[in-house]
Amino acid sequence: SLAVLQALEDGLKKADADPSVKAVMICGENGKFSAGADIRGFSSPKRHGAALGPIVSLIESSEKPVVAAIEGVALGGGLEVALGCHYRIAHAKARMGLPEVTIGLLPGAEGTQRLPRLIGVPAALDMITTGKHIPATEALKLGLIDEIVEENTIEAAVRLANKV
């Protein structure tokens, strides 16, 4: 939603400007990182405000480490947000993917560029063209995430942020 996009942008800019902030952690709510965009908004008249692509680039260009704490799902734009982060931790039950291709859309926030850089072209093409959701164990093997945890994902992300 526009509210989430605006909150991400405002929060990151505030954190980057605050010298007491040493790292940023991005998480979802209610056990889900993000299921991506609400496709009903795609047919709405032109919206004004934050757009996902520039916000993911803002995350990626942050001078402070940004850690994604992935619980539940990181799909579509949600995975693209995670791809912009410098580090990604996922709960063992998390699933990730770019499912928009199954309804005829390509990922629109540069996920098609970031994913191949991270996991290689063959694996990225498979994810991008099939829309399949992969479990955290496969994401770790591919290099999509840095760590899998069984416990509290947010606490683990904070530990990693403190370490880096």
Automatic annotation (TrEMBL):
InterPro entries: ClpP/crotonase-like_dom_sf (IPR029045), Enoyl-CoA_hyd/isom_CS (IPR018376), Enoyl-CoA_hydra/iso (IPR001753). Pfam families: ECH_1 (PF00378). It catalyses: (3S)-hydroxyhexanoyl-CoA = (2E)-hexenoyl-CoA + H2O; a (3Z)-enoyl-CoA = a 4-saturated (2E)-enoyl-CoA; (3E)-decenoyl-CoA = (2E)-decenoyl-CoA; a 4-saturated-(3S)-3-hydroxyacyl-CoA = a (3E)-enoyl-CoA + H2O. Keywords: Isomerase, Lyase, Multifunctional enzyme. GO terms for molecular function: (3S)-3-hydroxyacyl-CoA dehydrogenase (NAD+) activity; delta(3)-delta(2)-enoyl-CoA isomerase activity; enoyl-CoA hydratase activity. One of its GO terms (cellular component) is peroxisome. Belongs to the enoyl-CoA hydratase/isomerase family. In the C-terminal section; belongs to the 3-hydroxyacyl-CoA dehydrogenase family. This is Peroxisomal bifunctional enzyme. It comes from Dryoscopus gambensis. The gene is Ehhadh_0.
